[in-house]
Specification:
With about 300 residues, this protein is an alpha/beta fold. The chain folds into 2 domains: about 190 residues, Rossmann fold (3-Layer(aba) Sandwich); about 100 residues, ProC C-terminal domain-like (ProC C-terminal domain-like fold, Orthogonal Bundle), CATH 1.10.3730.10. The chain is about 50% helix and about 15% strand. The chain has an 8-stranded mixed β-sheet, sandwiched between helices. Strand 7, helix 8 and strand 8 form a beta-alpha-beta unit. The longest helix has 22 residues. The chain is elongated and about 70 Å long.
């Protein structure tokens, strides 16, 4: 894919199927954003966009049926409504929709969300953060919208999320650049071909769960050796954080970093030898394959 960070002139493909996007596609930033689903991921995105500097900050509104989420958003000064039809009845339409609901809510035959999205003016850009829902499924359910598919993880809330992006052909370079910048502001973003999403999801999306297990096991080992649970957990957490920083910010390759830490006859090589005897490397590789297969299965069953 071409460099999405470069703003381009109006893409003639944007006229495909009669969809005529507004000024957002042609070079302006979105003025109005609706986030459908104010839970974990949606809430992070809402607060990030609402917290941008005045002057470049869009007007952000949230749609969520939860009374608690509605109350919290309104207390934070963010417009909110219990339903998408309710938001639409207030008048106007968004320049950008972020769909952050569970896939089943969108995919069920009588989905209020999908039906309401189909009632929006044609050509509006929509971002889906729903796991496993392909661009073709998104277009089938709401063909009047133009879609970007996003896969991210909970580290987004700490500004360290890894976000994967795939766009339909009718999304302009400027829109791609805006979405790339949005998610880069909460960590890192990467454009990928959609057929790579299942394998990438296994590492970027599910990987934190595996690493949390590693952190827990390291802490358990420390407790076994006499450390307090609090101290052992702190040390394990910082070991993961420090390693991730060296791999990302310093550009170290995993195998070279491991070689630097594992000095001859030292403590690290002793531990690595135990892990190799227990087949930990092969188990992690198999876990990635299992998670990728499950991701493909979920997509097929939607």
């Amino acid at each position: 894919m071409k460099d999405a960070r470069k703003s381009g002139k109006k893409n003639p493909k944007n006229q495909k199927n009669g969809l005529v996007p507004g000024s957002f596609a042609q070079g302006d930033d979105p003025q109005t954003v609706w986030v459908v689903g104010g839970g974990q991921m949606g809430g992070v995105i809402v607060r990030h966009m609402a917290g941008q500097r005045p002057g470049i900050r869009p007007s952000v509104a949230v749609v969520d049926p939860s009374p608690e989420i509605l109350k919290t958003m309104k207390q934070e000064g963010i417009e909110a409504d219990a339903s998408l039809p309710g938001m639409m009845r207030k008048g106007g339409s968004p320049d950008l929709v972020v769909l952050a609901v569970k896939p089943g809510i969108f995919q069920k035959p009588d989905s209020e969300v999908a039906g309401a999205l189909s009632g929006l003016p044609p050509g509006i850009l929509a971002i889906s953060v729903m796991a496993g829902v392909s661009l073709s499924h998104l277009r089938d359910r709401a063909p009047n919208l133009r879609w970007i598919r996003v896969m991210t993880n909970l580290a987004l809330s700490a500004g360290k999320g890894m976000t994967l992006l795939a766009a339909s052909q009718d999304v302009s370079h400027h829109e791609q650049s805006f979405v790339y910048s949005l998610f880069s502001g909460m960590g890192r973003a990467l454009w990928l071909p959609e057929d790579s999403f299942d394998a990438a999801t296994a590492i970027a999306g599910s990987g934190p769960g595996l690493l949390a297990l590693v952190a827990e096991a390291l802490a358990d080992g420390g407790v076994r050796e006499g450390l307090s649970r609090e101290t052992a957990t702190l040390l394990a957490s910082w070991a993961l954080l420090g390693t991730g920083t060296l791999l990302t910010d310093r550009g170290h390759l995993p195998e070279l970093l491991k070689a630097r830490v594992a000095s001859p006859s030292g403590t690290t090589i002793e531990g690595l030898a135990v892990l190799e005897r227990q087949g930990v490397r092969g188990a992690v590789i198999d876990a990635v394959s299992a998670m990728a297969a499950r991701s493909r299965e979920i997509s097929r069953n939607l």
